[in-house]
Amino acid sequence: MAGAGMATLGSWVPRRRWGREAVFLGFYRGLSALLARKSERTPRWVPACRPKSSVSFLSRPDLPNLAYKKLKGKSPGIIFIPGYISNMNGTKALAIEEFCKSLGHAYIRFDYSGVGNSDGNLQECTVGKWRKDVLSIIDDLAEGPQILVGSSLGGWLMLHAAIARPQKVVALIGIATAVDGLVIQFNQLPVEDSGKENFLFLHLA
């Protein structure tokens, strides 16, 4: 299903903007195949055993500094948006980086505020603050058109980023995208108390 979805997505994106249509469509199919191979053959603990490379930090006034890794390459660039409390050294983030290297595409992976090597207190973080993290990466680090790859909760943030930055986001790839998770939680809260108001404050502030 993931491979089919990626192929379908490639069909409606204005690929002529970059000229090489076959390569652009092939990116999604190749990415799907690579992730499948990684999940079948590579134990989850292997990436953590890889030698650590230097981490860069995005400084932001009045906001926590974000840890990131940036791979230079051709356009469109790819940004991986991790899931809930996941960091940029996970299996998917590293597998996509290897794939981008093989094709020569630019790539960015990063840690949310309060997660991994980024500054901030996790207990003070909200989905709204992580949305700002994603937009900071797009605005301050990414160059040219970008393909967003969102995993789980990162898929929800990916959609928000695409709406906020339509001029830079040209394609979306969701991996087990949790687009309705927060909506379901919100609808399950009782109406009698202030549960919904607290939910909105804690998650969307």
TrEMBL record:
Keywords, A to Z, come to:
Hydrolase, Mitochondrion, Transit peptide
**Pfam families in alphabetical order:** Abhydrolase_1
Enzyme category, top tier: hydrolase
Q: What is this enzyme's EC?
A: 3.1.1.93, 3.1.2.22
Please give one Gene Ontology molecular function term for this protein: palmitoyl-(protein) hydrolase activity
Q: Which residues form a coiled coil?
A: none
Q: Where in the cell is it found?
A: Mitochondrion
Q: Which GO terms describe its cellular component?
A: mitochondrion
Asked whether the keyword Hydrolase is assigned, the reply is: yes
Which reaction(s) does its UniProt entry say it catalyses?
S-hexadecanoyl-L-cysteinyl-[protein] + H2O = L-cysteinyl-[protein] + hexadecanoate + H(+); mycophenolic acid O-acyl-beta-D-glucuronide + H2O = mycophenolate + D-glucuronate + H(+)
Gene3D superfamilies named in the record: alpha/beta hydrolase
Principal place where this protein is found?
mitochondrion
- What is this protein's function? Acts as an acyl-protein thioesterase that hydrolyzes fatty acids from acylated residues in proteins. Regulates the mitochondrial S-depalmitoylation of the nucleophilic active site residue of peroxiredoxin-5/PRDX5, a key antioxidant protein, therefore modulating mitochondrial antioxidant ability. Also catalyzes the deglucuronidation of mycophenolic acid acyl-glucuronide, an active metabolite of the immunosuppressant drug mycophenolate.
Q: Which family does it belong to?
A: Belongs to the AB hydrolase superfamily.
- Write down what this protein is called: Palmitoyl-protein thioesterase ABHD10, mitochondrial
